[in-house]
Structure formats: structure tokens, C-alpha cells
Amino acid sequence: MDGPAFTRRVPAGEDRERQVCDACGFVAYENPKVVVGSVVGDGEGRVLLCRRAIEPRRGFWTLPAGYLELGETAEEGARREAWEEARARLQLQGLLAVYSIARIGQVQLIFRAGLAEPGVAPGPESLETRFFAWEEIPWDELAFPSVRWALGAWKDAAPGVAGNPPADPRGTGGL
User: Fold this and answer.
1) Beta strand pairing call for 46-52 and 126-133
2) What is the dihedral of CA 148, 154, 155, 159, to 10 degrees?
3) How far apart, in whole angstroms, are the C-alpha atoms of residue 123 and residue 9?
4) How far is 113 from 96, CA to CA, in rounded Å?
5) Closest CA to 52 of 136, 144, 149, 132
6) CB 108 within 8 A of CB 64
7) Alpha-carbon distances of 38 from 12, 33, 49, 168, rounded to whole Å
8) What is the pLDDT of residue 2?
9) Are the beta carbons of 83 and 40 closer than 8 angstroms?
10) What's the pTM value of the predicted model, to 2 decimals?
11) DSSP assignments along 47-106, one per residue
12) Between 22 and which of 5, 114, 123, 153 could a Cys-Cys bridge form, CB atoms 3.0 to 4.6 Å apart?
């Protein structure tokens, strides 16, 4: 038995094409994914990075971050991702940045954090975890532009929540 057929069209009361069920009119909305993560400082000016063990960008350095799961708060998701990627237990210290990455349909919520208990180690999605002093950060080996943005926001320590850089307001600059 086949499932219902969907057609891409503009539903009544809408202004853009959506996937609409031909049988009942149900609209299957396609919305951005939410990514949660943290810039984790060690209290001595160093920041935690994880070398990715998975694609995309395997072997490149990133923050402990990933997709928010259904039923999680953003804070719970950021803590879970830090555990999965760096075996780190975090003390979140507030929202650091919100980034819109329109080209891949993501909204990223990045927290400022410290360790709630000592110790980090690679989780299943990381080849390596390490704290870097600012001048040691492997800038040419960062996985994504938003990692650079978040590190900059962490270093600047400006009040408020950071957003996309003015030169890339929609997150379309790519690598």
C-alpha cells in the first residue's frame, strides 16, 4: 500500500509553495533545523575544540554542537552534545550567539559555558578533544564559518547576544 501523494503548490492563505497532501490537504511544512552548542572555556583563557570523526568536514575542528532533539530544551541539547562529542559535563553561562545559516536551513544557538566537572575525552563523533589557547587555535582547520564567529564572540565578551557578521547576514558565505 502506497502512502499519500504530495504535490508542491501554494496552499490557500499561504504565499509560498509547500508540500500538500493531495487527499486531505495536509501541509508538510519544511522548517530550519536547530543546532545547539557551546564555546567551553577552561577558566584559563583556553577554549575546547573537537576534531570531527564524521562528515561533513571530518578531521576539522569544531565546537561541541549538533542538532537539537525533540523533547529537549536548547540548554539540555547543548549539554547532551558536549557529552556526546567531548565527554564534557557543562555549566552553561548564558546564550552567547544566534546564527542564521540560510543556505543550509539552520538556526544555531551557541552558549557560553565552562566545565561543571573536570575532564574531557573524545566521544563517538570526535577523533580528538583539546583546549586551545587563543593563539594556538587552528584557524585554517576550523570546520565551519560559524565556529570562527562563535570563537570571536567568546573572545570579544561583548554584552548581549552575537549574531551573524554584517558581511554575511544570511550565513551564505560558505567556507
Assistant:
1) antiparallel
2) 130
3) 43
4) 9
5) 144
6) no
7) 41, 17, 10, 21
8) 78
9) no
10) 0.89
11) EEEEEESSSSSTTSEE-SEEEPPTT--HHHHHHHHHHHHH---EEEEEEEEEEEEGGGTE
12) 5
Taking a C-beta distance cutoff of 8 angstroms, is the pair 107, 100 a contact?
A: yes
Grid cell for residue 104: 543550509
* Distance linking the first and last C-alpha atoms of the chain: 44
Distance CA 150, CA 113 (A): 12
> What cell was used for 38?
557551546
Enter the C-alpha cell of residue 166: 554584517
Q: Give the pLDDT mean for 55-76.
A: 97
Cell of 111: 552558549
pLDDT of residue 175: 61
- What is the predicted pLDDT for the residue at 1? 60
In tens, the pLDDT along 78-126 reads 999 999 999 999 999 999 999 999 999 999 999 999 999 999 999 999 9
Q: What pLDDT score does 15 carry?
A: 94
